[in-house]
From TrEMBL:
It comes from Brassica campestris (Field mustard). The chain crosses the membrane at residues 109-129. The keyword Nucleus does not apply. This is Cytochrome b5 heme-binding domain-containing protein. Its main location: membrane.
Length: 138
């Protein structure tokens, strides 16, 4: 490894974001990958978009081989001061709203009952009116 245990802040690493001077942070370690940019199979743009931040997720999401991970050792220049790296935000699902769910279920049930009862009431009313207005046949 080329690093001598130097600790960098994220602000210091963020000053190295060009294709002439490119540093990235992966798993708390700082790598100067400037010499590798031209050789990167995905092109230099892929790496350049991951500068100035913790690129661990970007690196892991691609699914780099163990060989690619081992290659990082030759570009190692130091460690990142973890206090300067913003905490990762994790997706938190909104709490399930049980009362709203129960209201939806009860209103659905009420609608189904009304869809059944209203036609029966109309039919009963029609039969009742018919029987009262029917003239007796002689």
């Amino acid at each position: 490894m080329g690093g001598d245990g130097k600790v960098f802040t994220l602000e210091e690493v963020s000053q190295h974001t060009s294709n002439q001077d490119c540093w990235i942070v992966i798993d708390g370690k700082v790598y100067d990958v400037t010499k590798f940019l031209d050789d990167h199979p995905g092109g230099d743009e892929v790496i350049l978009t991951s500068t100035g931040k913790d690129a661990t997720d970007d690196f892991e999401d691609v699914g780099h081989s163990s060989t690619a991970k081992a290659m990082l050792d030759e570009y190692y220049v130091g460690d990142i001061d973890s206090a300067t790296v913003p905490a990762k935000t994790k997706f938190v699902a909104p709490p399930s709203n049980q009362t709203q769910s129960n209201q939806n279920k009860s209103s659905d049930f009420l609608i189904k009952i009304l869809q059944f009862l209203v036609p029966l009431l109309i039919l009963g009313l029609a039969l009742g009116i018919r029987s009262y207005t029917k003239t007796p046949s002689s």
